[in-house]
Amino acid sequence: MASTGENWSRREFLSTTSTLAFPAVLGLRPRRDKPNLLFLWTDEQRADTMRVYGNGRIHAPNLNKLASQSVVFLNAYVSQPVCTPSRSTVMTGLWPHQTGCTENNIPLSPQTPCLPEILNDPDYRTGYFGKWHLGDEIFPQHGFEEWVSIEDEYGRFYSEGKDRNAKSSYWHFLRELGYSPDTGRGTFSRRYVSRLPLEHSKTRFLERKACEFLERHRREPFILYVNFLEPHMPFNGPLNDEHRLDEIVLPENFDDPLEENEPLRYRLLRAQYAQFGFEGHDLSTESGWRRLIANYWGLASQVDRSVGAILRTLDRLGLEDNTIVVYTSDHGDMMGAHRLLAKTVMYNESVRVPWLIRYPSLTRKRVLVREPVSHIDLVPTLLHLLGRRQDQRFPGESLLPRVLAGKPSPKEVFIEWNPPLRYGEPLPNLLGAPEEEVQRAFGASIRTVITPDNWKLCLSDLDKSQLFDLNRDPWETTNLFGEPQVADIVARLTDRIRRWQETVNDRLPL
């Protein structure tokens, strides 16, 4: 399962960790040595946005350095490729259908605990800074003592009794600088903010707040989550010109035609982007896509700079050795793959994300984990690193024993898609499909399994299903579902999905 750098053997890895990691894992750590947790994450960052994931063109020296010191999960998958459902898993260790957060803007129940509440250790100082998107956006909750908010987009979804006229921490920061809101609601739109200078950006604002938190709590255990909005749309920022257009390489599957055996919803999305573009970008041309991708890369570089500043502060304060650093994202972005944009589809560019864990007591060198892993295992893994034994309430499990073993441990990865029936709008019918089919496609659910030997079945209840052999077809251009020669594989993987559904009480009929 885990492979190391060229000059680092498994024996060296185990000899390094045996004296450091195992006492921590078993909960034998002296109280004064309780590890800190610095959880850095982004919104809409696909996996191949740093060198270790195959893209050395993006200017991301700080993330590349972090990856060189981390356990790197090369094939890490989200629980559902859209914000709120995925975030509910990251924060609670539960599937979206278990938290009830099956689409955007459904609030996480106060009765469903997040990691600080699960850990329940009064010695820890806790903070959540950045985008939340799990309800009551700007109000402290779920065990976090300090709360720094950046989003004013979700006021209409606040729970009863919350002040809908209250504004985010970032709003107050901009007002103090003399900026005037640009919307009728008295807020700053994301498009407006994306045109501000770097010093006044959300990334730099969160960077400063995070560094201040580290300074204040450097002598006591802490848990700090920092969630950057970037590189999320509107795909515009102060580093748009950070990468030359001739550096941009279009995806290998850019010209995949999406035949009629692919899901209708995906084909409708593709037609929408081709006809209407996005935020002024003409996505019917290669040059339009290159410009958009360059902007996206610039946003990734923008995050990289702030991550670097936070990690340098951690080091300067002497906290590096006793701090678990996690870096991941809530989902990816198609960014031209199959000529699609954003998320909500089951292609790898949408569901696969970066996931790094750096903890010097675990390892001081890079470890590459190649087998598929899931965000469902994130909370159990962090609790394990924090000295807590496996909690049977979670459907996932700690990945630590598998990493330490240094050998493959076959395990399927599952992914959900629950349609946005409450807050979503059907796609425009640009393909002339029967309206009943369009409605069915919009309301379709999907359950996906990815096997250790790289078969991927995306089973839909109302739209076309997909089967990919990722060994031979890593860019997912040939849907094999329905081909007679793979009928036994479809049957076997369908059975795996249904048995998983029984285990996690997922009642979707497929």
Q: Can you describe this structure?
A:
By secondary structure, the chain is an alpha/beta fold. It has a single domain, classed as Alkaline Phosphatase, subunit A. It is 30% helix and 13% strand. It has 16 helices and 16 strands. Strands 1-11-3-10-8-2-7-5-6 form a nine-stranded mixed β-sheet. β15 and β16 form a beta hairpin. α9 packs parallel to α11. The chain is globular, with a radius of gyration of 22 Å. The N terminus is likely disordered.
The structure class reads: alpha/beta
Largest sheet strand order: 1-11-3-10-8-2-7-5-6
Taking all residues together, what is the mean pLDDT?
Answer: 92
CATH class: Alpha Beta
Q: Please tell me the CATH architecture by its name.
A: 3-Layer(aba) Sandwich
**Poorly predicted parts:** 1-32
Gross morphology is: globular
Please, how many domains?
1
CATH fold label: Alkaline Phosphatase, subunit A
Write down how many β-strands occur, each being a DSSP E stretch of 2 or more residues: 16
* Total DSSP helices: 16
Strand content: 5-15%
Helix content: 25-40%
Q: Radius of gyration, Cα only, in angstroms?
A: 22 Å
Major β-sheet, in short? 9 strands, mixed
Q: What is the CATH homologous superfamily assignment?
A: Alkaline Phosphatase, subunit A
Could you tell me how far the N terminus lies from the C terminus, measured between alpha carbons in angstroms? Answer: 32 Å
Record the SSE blueprint.
Blueprint: E1 2-4, H1 10-18, H2 21-25, E2 36-42, H3 61-68, E3 71-73, E4 76-77, H4 83-92, H5 96-99, H6 115-119, E5 125-130, E6 146-148, H7 169-176, H8 190-193, H9 202-216, E7 222-227, H10 264-276, H11 286-316, E8 323-329, H12 348-351, E9 352-353, E10 355-358, E11 367-369, E12 373-374, H13 378-385, H14 400-405, E13 413-417, H15 435-442, E14 446-450, E15 455-460, E16 466-469, H16 487-503
Parallel strand pairs: 2-7, 2-8, 3-11, 4-12, 5-6, 5-7
Antiparallel strand pairs: 1-11, 3-10, 4-9, 8-10, 13-14, 14-15, 15-16
Helix pairs in contact: 9-11
